[in-house]
Design goal:
This protein is an alpha+beta fold. The protein is built from 4 helices and 15 strands. It is 18% helix and 35% strand.
Length: 230
């Protein structure tokens, strides 16, 4: 369960709720990014979500229900690696878009990890492994929860986030042109979860190059990190 949002008005603002259960995570501040890392038994701490000082943001909601078409076949690219490549600035959003246009994108076995990627210009790329991709050139706003935008509500799952999607979409549609960090946190708060708990809520003010986040829905304990120019 997760929610990814972006708003392009007077500012480009990106929001992300990480909702996970029984997984070890940490938020790591660095000069070149703020990373939400997951402790993988094989790979160790992996930076899977967050913002970098180039203006990119990576969110990775799980698609519910799982779609077997996302299972890796042959030598295809794994979407999780493309996400890391954007976050660590090994590739640009447009380079990843070019890969998605030409090659099949897979996830890890038995889990359909989607990609919600954006860049400093407010462009958005959603990749749904095994199903395709959607590219939005600086949209007014976009939302991705845990269902495939290619299927919408044709397949049901308790954690698909259909309600979260519509709450966030309505709040973004009604938002004023001066939509800012506090407004984004209000949306993240409205769609936060307890059963599969929201462990990190992060907002990236891309225009000001500043990242804000709180852990475990402690909305009055916001931390922040300002990025100097590259």
């Amino acid at each position: 369960m997760c929610t990814s949002i972006i708003s392009n008005r007077k500012k480009t603002i990106v929001g992300w709720n990480l909702d996970i259960l029984d997984m070890e995570y940490r938020v790591r501040k660095a000069e070149d990014g703020v990373y939400i890392e997951i402790n993988d038994k094989t790979e160790g701490w992996m930076p899977l979500f967050g913002a970098n000082n180039r203006g990119d943001f990576v969110g990775m909601p799980t698609c519910c229900p799982f779609d077997a078409r996302s299972n890796p076949i042959g030598l295809g690219n794994h979407v999780i690696m493309l996400d890391i490549d954007l976050l660590t600035k090994k590739k640009t959003l447009q380079e990843i878009r070019a890969i998605a246009e030409k090659e099949p994108i897979y996830s890890v076995p038995s889990v359909t990890f989607m990609s919600s990627l954006s860049d400093q210009n407010g462009n958005v790329l959603h990749i749904i492994p095994g199903q395709g991709y959607k590219y939005y050139e600086k949209p007014k706003y976009q939302v991705l929860t845990n269902f495939s935008p290619f299927k919408m509500d044709r397949e049901q799952h308790p954690w698909m986030g259909w309600d979260r999607y519509h709450i966030a979409e309505k709040m973004l549609e009604d938002a004023a042109d001066d939509f800012d960090v506090d407004d984004c946190f209000e949306i993240l708060r409205a769609v936060s979860q307890e059963v599969c708990p929201t462990v990190v809520s992060m907002v990236f003010d891309v225009t000001q190059m500043k990242v804000y986040w709180c852990e475990n829905r402690q909305w009055d304990h916001i931390q922040e990190k300002f990025f100097d120019s590259e």
